[in-house]
Amino acid sequence: MRFWLRTANLFLLLGFGILSAQTKFLVDAWYEYLNVSDDPSYYKSQVLTRLYNKNNWKQDNYGSEQPLSHGVTWLKFRTKTDVAPGIILWANLVGEHRGASYGDRSSDNIFVYPSGFFRLEKQLFSDFDFRLKMGDFDDYRLNQGLYLFNQDVRGIEAEFELSEAISYKYFWVADLVRSVGLRTDDLFVHTLALNFGDSTSEYSSHSSVSMGKCLGDMDTVKSKLVWTLGSEFYWAKSWSGYFSAGNRGFDNRSGAYLLGGKFAQNRSKSELNFRLEGRYYEENFLSGLKNDVDYIDLEKTQGANTIGNELYPLSAYKNPFSQLAVFSEYQGVYTEGQKEKILKTDVWGVSLQGEYLRRFEPFFASVDFDLNYVKPDEFAGILYPFCIFKIGYEPAKNNKIAFVVSNKGINLNKSYKTFYAYKDFFWGLSFSRDLNFN
Question: Is the confidence at residue 20, as pLDDT, over 80?
């Protein structure tokens, strides 16, 4: 499998060398500052706090010391090359400056890394299509999203489709043991899907069965077979619903369940989209998948401390909060009174995430909401209510300057809680240039 990883990297590197009349060059840019007060209050789970303190994790110390408080700059230099009909290659170079404090050119706050994506689409013969994708998949959702969703991954996806009615897809994901979110060894997932109706009809559906040898930490947890069954339904072109159920290793109490729906509407003066989901994970589905990764240097003081052994990319701030790790972090040893207890529990949750944008050309107003309620059995639930309001000016399409009011901050502490949900709102400024090749 390491051979395939090297092969994927080779294709990405070739992107910088394939320069032709079919190559486009663009730069995305984002700057944001949030005026967070000293020692702000934020929403946190009592049982998780006890769990972190028991294991001497640095937690609850940096509520105000997060990159947005010092102003972050993110640049993405992108090339898109049409190599041949049906073959497209993206090659990107990302640069991050994580705040002007503590020295404007401090190497502790500056990071540069490559990314890229390769896509091939071919019709092998009549009504039989082949698609190959490899590279970086941003904000990826596997099938209906029962266990891999809202996550940045690197991998290879190959799909065969017959008459737009039946398809087989193989997806390999490089291990995520030290990634933001799900903690697992390499994922190998096979999916067989049936489609009913077509994209031009008012109603259609998509049903799939998937099997994968996955969801195991290479160091401590043996990989187990995961089966999932799911369906998606589409109607009136704006609405869709989906459900999925799965089992990990056929152990006792190892089930997982998902029910969700989404809506998307794009008009000349307004845009509205949202996704509502309910999830339930039994304890043995989650067992061993806790992600203990540091995104800061624990040997340093808090100043200019935004990069640890692992990188939390600034672009992840744009992703929804909910991932499987929101649920799998409820395990370990904690203290209650004078006694030590083992935390191992079923966890369920509900999330509502979306955005409303209203244009008053050349001005605009928007609200980005991401509400998450997470409840472990026998413990109090926790609400993470993220909300970002913007009023701004758009002199050219997707080039925006905005005044921001937000309660969402970047959390680099050890644990999955990658965003702070502040109890107060803070003002800020945002400048963005967001162009899309697709």
Answer: no
How does DSSP classify residue 35?
-
Q: b/e per residue, 224-249, with b = 16+ CB within 10 A? A: bebebbbbbbbeeeeebbbbbbbbbb
d(CA 195, CA 205): 6
Cβ-based neighbours of 414, under 8 Å, separated by 6 or more: 52, 57, 58, 59, 292, 293, 294, 295, 298
- The mean of the pLDDT values for the chain is 84
Q: What is the DSSP letter of 284?
A: H
Structure tokens at 306: 């935004």
SS (H, E, C) 50-89: HHHHHCCCCCCCCCCCCHHHHCEEEEEEEEEEEEECCEEE
User: What burial letters (b/e) apply to 267-283, b meaning 16+ CB within 10 Å?
Assistant: eeeebeeebbbebbbbb
pLDDT reported for residue 436: 62
Query: Which token pair is 307?
Result: 């990069």
Please, which pLDDT band fits residue 435 given cuts at 50, 70 and 90? low
Does the pLDDT of residue 278 top 90, yes or no?
A: yes
Distance CA 156, CA 136 (A): 9
